[in-house]
Amino acid sequence: MPSEEIKRYWKSLDERAAQENGPAEIERELQFDLDQAPLRHPRRDFLKLSGFAFSSALLIGCQSAPIIKAIPFLNKPEEITPGKSYFYASTCGACSAGCGLMVKNRDGRPIKLEGNPQHPLSKGGLCAVGQASILGLYDTHRLKQPMRAGQPAAWNEVDQEIQAKLSEIAARGGAVRFLTGTITSPTMKWMIDRFLSRFQYARHIVYDPLTCSALLDAQERTFGVRALPSYHFDKADVIVSLDADFLGTWISPVEFTSQYASGRSLEGHPPRLSYHVQFESRLSLTGAKADQRYCIAPQDLNAIMNGLASLLARKRGIPFPGTTTLPSSIPAHDLDQLAEHLWQARGSSLVVSGSQDVKTQILCCFINEILGNYGSTLDLARPSSQRQGDDGELQQFIQELLNGKVQALFIAGANPVYDLPQGEDLAKAISKVPLVVNFASELDETANASTFVCPDHHYLESWSDAEAISGIISTMQPAIRPMWDTRAIIEILAVWMGESKSAHDIMLESWQRNIYPRRLKAADFQTFWDRAVHDGFANVEPAAMTPKPLDISAVKPATESPSPTSNNLALVLYPKVGMLDGRHANNPWLHELPDPISKVTWDNYACLSPRTAVQLGVSDGDVVRLSPLSGANCTIELPALVQPGQHDQVVAVALGYGRNSSARFKEIGPRWFQARPSTGNDGLVGKNAVPFLYFDGDARRFDGQAVSISPTGRRSELASTQSHHSIAVPEKLAPFGEKQRRIVQETTLPAFIRDPKSGGHPHHPPEGELWPDDHPYKGYRWGLVIDLNACTGCGACVIACQAENNVPVVGRDEVFRKREMHWIRIDRYYSDSQSGVDVLFQPMLCQQCGHAPCETVCPVLATVHSEEGLSQQVYNRCIGTRYCANNCPYKVRRFNWFNYQHKDPVQNLVLNPDVVVRSRGVMEKCTFCVQRIQEAKIEAKRLGQKVPDGAIQPACQQSCPAKAITFGDMNNPDSLVAKRMADPRNYRVLEELNVQPVIGYLTLVRNRQGGSGGKHHG
Amino acid sequence: MLKSPIVTFFLLAVLLFSLVILAAKIGEVRLPGNQQGYEPTQPIAYSHRLHAGELQLDCLYCHFGAQTSRHAGIPPANVCMNCHKFVTAPLGAIRAEDELAQKEKREPRRIISPELKKLYDALALDDQLKPIPGLEQKPIAWVKVHNLPDFAYFDHRAHVSAGVVCQQCHGAVETMERVRQDQRLSMGWCVNCHRQANQQGVAGKAVNASIDCSTCHY
Asked: Hey, which end of chain B has fewer CB within 10 Å, N or C?
């Protein structure tokens, strides 16, 4: 037995309280009182009804079948065979990170997005937002034609009118402004430049709602180059992040997650595990993975950066201008040790900061420079263009706009009325501009204020390109004909310049002119182009970029602001993993994706630390009012959420909510007499926290605003999935006389090196079999391994599964009733640690048990075992007793309480034709993507071979940016899954039940001292 | 009431009558969804007897999807046109026109049979099989004969590559003027064949025809 205290895990604060105060809380979860539910229908009624049902079923069955038409092609395109999927390589347009895509098409329409495994940046991963963006293609709220002054118009009318106004403005010499988000497409940039060059006073203004302007400014002031460096987290042995959520939302999460995971793979000898330290004020996805996490108030982050810079400057022997007093928020010894760690890992360390304070970012450049990291873990010679927004220019532009100096305004991929502070003033100013053209594809907040709306294609309908990292140009190609009468921006600009060209021709011209000359290998243009479109990207010569040596005079200590007084809190605005800046607020999949940390769906909320919540006397769901101390008029009322791991002086609110496009979700989910809307009182999902953003010098700040907070006395429940489907049990039911069931396992690096099995279960699994061993698995035996060390909990697998398996959206009200339908959920466990809480993510899906408890209780044999080890769920046989779900120890079965909405025929185009759309009264669960297994098996049979290892990837595995999931044939000893099953870290959840799950989990290893975890015996 | 002999007699007569009717129809009793014998009229009176029987075209020439895809597929019109670019009417009609033309000392006209006319109309072709400018092509809406429920996934590829002959499930299509559903296509019928195939093999080869539910249901 282990000598030290075993870590106790909890999912919610209630659960932790129950662990301390006795088991009442958990038992309440498990209790159900029969007296409270009297039998309302006696047996006779039941018999009558069933007799009626049976006879009507017979009657219905006697009806003649409907005539089904089969309409073949007249001229079949060569690459399309009905019933077979085909893929187009493309680039994700859901954010500016530019991940590679494989668009899975079926019979002419895209049905699923997969990561492109060959893509040099995303390496096959795709985040939840990217996965969900396919739903935007089939969004019936998209504009179907251009609009003029709120009325539908025809393209030629709009063209003529705009052209006339443009030539007038050009003659007058009026100011023309083109406002966009970050544009990584070289072709689009080229077209905008050409378009603007026709006007005397024209400027292209770029801003990002989730800006990195301070970081760009810092690079400019220190190295003379206004560009982001490309980051290489895989090459870093020590990673220090100050409030940069690089695994969740910062710049390019998929790329960074893939790098991060490969720097922590543990598979080499000796195992390599980077040391990751996170300083942050609220618990982010990145902080949850950190080996060492410090909970720091936002105003103290600067002091830490100062301290770190001065310590490292001393080690390097460079004078550091300014104070050398060390920050008080963390022990001096810790900071010393961290500086020493970084210094030891010179050239293979990385310090990143998510701050919007230019001085802090300059210090960050300075630290990386003296550590010699430029050129290894971050690279300015191949800069990234994933964020280009310039808040300084934005402010100038806002002034121009408010002063009425702008004559023509073009807005593309930006929604300033929503995502900039003073949105209402901007809307008024925009409506006064003589010519406003918005390229928005929906009537968003800004489009409502614009005279002309010329809808752009969805990115899956467009030709485009993206140079996210200099030298890697990804291509975007249409996977479907435009659904409606929309037009690509580059085509529109071409028309207004008097050249009527298709987007494809514009692309060709741009590539021939600007990109083909940068080719690395000799090839004629056609070959070069074809190759790029086929692969989805082209490697070319990086754009010439010569950073100057670091300008030391720019380095100054960051301003250390005073702590707020005890009554006030510092507001931190942050993007959520699913919602980001709110541009996808029209996407129901993303609203229903539980936030990886808080597990709340369909809302934003005010996160408070447990202590602050007690001081204020609020608990989850109590509505609080936040008002800024500066006196600005932007009060907001939000339900509170008590969030462990958050700093006591901080209240954190997610951005991206309260978008006008979320009004459509009022009636989402089943309509029945008890149904309540998924939106709030104002008819929108969540509240917009953008008014709390403010400009500080040149940069837009997300944190540091001092606010006062007061409870309103009202309540607004949060649809949190935190306590749903818990597999914890009360203490008296815990096995082996322990206090808790063992569900997750973790260990530390030193303990792992001593004993690779450390952290494992100290007890032997039960021996002996109740069942005769008469069902050997002779052919394939499918198994799956999840590496908890790699998993970041980002939720990409949840949405991938939803898209692949036609999992319905149930709406907020049904989530309250624990009826969310996701086949894979990510359980997030907290445990107490010195720094507050440790977090552990465990994806939980059907364990396809060898001795499945669900199978033995089904009265109609609707769930039975297959010869290949799958626990099969047969929908057409299921009568909905729900016995199986009750008997499932992992709580992974989902019941269709309703026929969930499939009324929108356009939205239904996204459904996967290879998977049944389940109807009411049917149980469902993860199938290991059996449709993909069947496809691969049949294809292998056709070719006369066995299914090669790796040929089958369930949707969750395919999109996982961290490659945490491995699927394959366990009977093949050479398969990767068999090797991972034999890994000493491998364990099964609830092994003691002897249900023989086939999902192996690999123990999490934290790179920190101490904690040997459980030891093995015998 | 039953004590009245008239009523009893009447009821007995009704019962007897029902039983007679039932006995006569007993052979035709089928479960809901069983469409054995379904033989719908098609938009074009295409004859499998002529093409597959008399002319002995291979099934896979037109239904090429059966080798590579789940669906055997109805051939696209461009496959029809591989032959019907040249063959526009039955041989007899063309010969008759040739003879008539010879008699009348003129060039023989192109004869187009009324059924093939529908194909050319769909492709927007004129009498000389030239595209009619401005006319849109209209796909041909065939009526599907073999329908499986939405919850059953059948894959032609697996069966064709294992060597199952088409006729085993579709019957002697080469004798059918209009295609008719020959077999029951019920689950029991599928599973029986799978069991048999596992014992006896298909076309002399041992096969592994799975009877797991998830072979067809997912």
From this structure: N
3-class state of residue A344 by DSSP: helix
Strands A694-696 and A699-701 come out as antiparallel
Mutation target among A71, A74, A927 for the B interface, most CBs of B within 10 A: A74
Query: DSSP letter at A889?
Result: T
> Which residue in B38, B65, B210 is closest to A83 by CB distance?
B65
What number of CA atoms fall less than 13 Å from residue A236's CA on the CB side? 31
Chain B interface includes A942 (CB < 8 A)? yes
Cβ count near A560 (within 10 Å): 17
Q: Collect all residues with Cβ–Cβ distance below 8 Å to A266 and sequence separation of at least 6.
A: A272, A273, A752, A789, A985, A1005
- Residue A270 preceded by cis peptide, ω within 30: yes
Mean pLDDT along residues B32-42: 84
State the nearest Cα–Cα gap between A821 and chain B, in angstroms: 17
What is the CB neighbour count within 10 angstroms for residue A753? 15
The whole-angstrom separation of Cα B35 and Cα A232 is 62
Q: Which of A868, A917, A941 minimises the CB distance to B161? A: A941
Per residue in A354-402, pLDDT (tens digit) is 988 888 899 999 999 999 999 899 988 889 999 999 999 999 999 999 9
Tell me: the pLDDT tens digits for A410-462? 999 999 999 998 888 899 999 889 999 999 999 999 999 999 999 999 999 99
Provide the strand spans (E) within A948-1011. Answer: 965-969, 986-987, 999-1002, 1004-1006
pLDDT(A256) > 70: yes
User: Under 8 Å CB-to-CB from B193, ≥6 apart: which residues?
Assistant: B168, B209
Q: Is the CB of B151 less than 8 angstroms away from the CB of A916?
A: yes
Residues 915-934 of A with CB under 8 A from B: 915-917, 927, 930-931, 933-934
Amino acid at the residue B119? L
At residue A293, what is the residue type?
R
Is any Cβ of chain B less than 8 angstroms from the Cβ of A876?
yes
The answer to whether A61 faces chain B, any CB pair under 8 Å, is: yes
- Cβ atoms of residues A116 and A104 within 8 Å: no
Strands (E), A888-955: 894-895, 923-924
Specify which residues A784 forms β-bridges with: A967, A999
Residue pair A195/A496 in contact (Cβ under 8 Å)? The answer is yes
User: What phi and psi, each to the nearest 5 degrees, are found at residue A883?
Assistant: -60, -40
Judged by CB atoms closer than 8 Å, whether chains meet at A61 and B33 is answered as yes
DSSP string, A682-722: TSSSS---GGG-EEETTEEESEEEEEEEEEEEEE---EE-T
> Is the CB of residue A267 less than 8 Å from the CB of residue A979?
no
Look at chain A and count its residues.
1018
Q: Identify the residue whose tokens are 């507050």.
A: A836
d(CA A801, nearest CA chain B) in Å: 14
The yes-or-no verdict on residue A980 having pLDDT over 50 is yes
Which tens digit of pLDDT belongs to each residue from A113-127? 999 999 999 999 999
The token pair that represents A808 in the structure block: 């319905």
- Which pTM value belongs to this model? 0.91
Nearest to B35 among A65, A915, A927 (CB): A65
User: Distance between CA atoms of A288 and A831, rounded to whole angstroms?
Assistant: 11
Nearest to B78 among A58, A60, A76 (CB): A76
Full 3-state SS string of B126-141: CCCCCECCCCCCCCCC
User: In this complex, which of A69, A875, A930 lies closest to B142 when CB atoms are compared?
Assistant: A69
